[in-house]
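Data availability (excerpt). The following record was deposited with the supplementary files.
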Amino acid sequence: MLLDVLKIVAAVAVGLPILLYFYQERMLFYPTPPVSSVPWPARGEVEEVRLVAADGISLSGWFVSNGARRGEGRSPLVIYFGGNAEDVSWLVGTADRFAGHSLLVLNYRGYGGSGGRPGESALFADALLAYDYARQRGDLDATRFIAMGRSLGSGVAVYLASHRQLAGVILVTPYDSVRALAQAIYPWLPVGFLLKHPFDSLSRADKLTTPLLCLVAENDRVIPRVHSLRLFEAWGGGDKRWVELRAADHDDISDEPRYWDEIAAFLGRFALRER
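Predicted structure:
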């Protein structure tokens, strides 16, 4: 009997690390199929965007102008990075809630109409590609670019902030690192050696002084509050705001009216600058 138990324990001890290593992409990324239609915003013009990465992978997304008339100057921009099971096309229909900012959204590799397969290094490189594409557009003010990342996308937004100049960063249900999240779930495993996609935002946070808005859900059972708070407290700049939405959980945080009110107030600081 004892021998049978030991065999089971040994099988789990050996099998679980192997499972984590070879199947971690399936555990971390949940690609979504292409949508048949995209919701339209109340104002602004919508453009389909197709970018080609350095490795030839095609990325699909949308650009929504802020609705300003020609001659009114270049607009500020929000570049949005979604969660691990999120098709970002739904944001197109909410573009008028971004306080006078234009909006750029791209689906990750393997999501929606984007080709390829998702991975940390690829998502980071594609974030730089999106920023550089926006910067070369003549209708946008590159001094007023905001990165917004939700859940998985918070790590992409933090990476972008550490490699490009941004006016502000909005993080929704962020984490300190995927490594730390995984280690909390599997405390007996050497996660640091097994994880291929650590998304280590914490290691970058203390070097960042970009104004920060951090939105978290009180009832978040996916990313515990402590992981978000650790990142927020490590942020290098003093211009940062922590907002905890009491009635929200990880998936429905954007349904809370205060969620959009806080975003609009934060973005309003940049929309009102002289052009």
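Summary of structural features: The helical segments are 2-28, 120-136, 152-163, 178-185, 191-194, 202-205, 225-234, 257-271.
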